[in-house]
Request: fold
Amino acid sequence: MATDSYELPVLEVIEETGDARSVVFEVDESIAEHFGYRAGQFLTVAIPSDQTGVAARCYSLSSSPVDGGPPKVTVKRTADGYASNWICDHVQPGDTLRVLPPSGIFTPKSYDADLLLFAGGSGITPVISIAKTALSSGSGRVVLFYANQDEASVIFAPELAALAAEHPERLQVVHWLVSVQGLPSEPQLRAFAASYSTWDAFVCGPAPYMKAVTDALKALGFPRERRHQEKFVSLGGNPFGDVVAAAQAEAEIDAAEHEEGPPDGPSVPSTVEVELDGVDYRFDDWQPGTKLLDHLEAKGVPAPFSCREGHCSACACRILEGEVKMLQNDILDDEDIADGIRLACQAVPVTEKVKVTYH
Ligand SMILES: Cc1cc2nc3c(=O)[nH]c(=O)nc-3n(C[C@H](O)[C@H](O)[C@H](O)COP(=O)(O)OP(=O)(O)OC[C@H]3O[C@@H](n4cnc5c(N)ncnc54)[C@H](O)[C@@H]3O)c2cc1C
Ligand code: FES
Reply:
């Protein structure tokens, strides 16, 4: 099953740096209800491809949901990449792009909390949205540590300078240039973050940078619920089409069964209790081998998702009781799993009763 996609006209294309462009979309009032978003969320864009028909890629919204402006994503060219270069080379105002509605869980629960933000390169896109939204709609302080290769590659430099000037008491931006200071090391990041050890941390950037920041935050005792990370990966499948998604799901189950035998679990339907957005659901007919997300969608539950492939974590939920087995997981680490976090798009039942929450 796939979610509905929408053709959005491109209002504007902004050259941010030599290798990054923002694409501003127009959202007609008739579909506006599908495009409300929280700071830190992303759109999934269908990029036309001669090889595969569509290449699906996620792009974080760099706009803020509270300033009344249109949604905007910012795309940085990936060396030898397909979709990012296609967008930077081809997309013009007046074009339309097919997108899935906003999704993702890289979002602060409260803008009154103090936020410690780490961005590296294009990882600034969800982070600037969080910063702008917190400054206009919350009361907390914001500290941003922003690492880039050199001055020319700093996306949103003027916008960040303007924000810092507008909110001198609440926003501090620290730029780190690798060309000048080298890669920020874990001890350097730890020394920086030590003054903010009670704040909520958000991290987005290249994998080695995210690892260094995460190691620093762990060393400082930041608990899992105050360490949020967004990993930029490319989707392999196509969440835009029912046929492809269903065929792919079957293929994944076949592959899992081929490699590991049939999924462990009961041979009878399981009971699942779900807490989502303040609503409690209970279903007694979760069939063996059926993914939790598919089951909830079949019941009309608006469970979050994006890639459906175990890549993005938009579907992450927490197990409160019982156990599930994930057929694929490219994003959760051992600590996430120990904390009970699971990917609903990949979770099949292992016990006859399972209780999960999306909080
Ligand atoms: C939640 C999330 C948010 C993100 N936000 C951002 C963001 O704000 N800004 C940003 O810049 N990036 C963001 N990304 C990363 C983005 O989704 C892409 O991973 C990135 O742009 C690189 O994609 P690419 O196709 O250019 O490169 P790659 O994925 O490296 O391109 C190579 C891949 O494309 C395939 N390919 C090559 N040619 C073709 C073809 N003709 N047709 C089909 N496939 C082909 C190859 O097989 C290979 O798998 C985000 C990712 C996630 C998961
Ligand atoms: S929807 Fe992306 S990991 Fe489940």
Q: What stands out?
A: The pocket of flavin-adenine dinucleotide (ligand 1) is lined by residues 42, 49-52, 55, 57-60, 73-76, 78, 81-85, 104, 122, 125, 230, 232-234, 312 (CB under 6 Å).
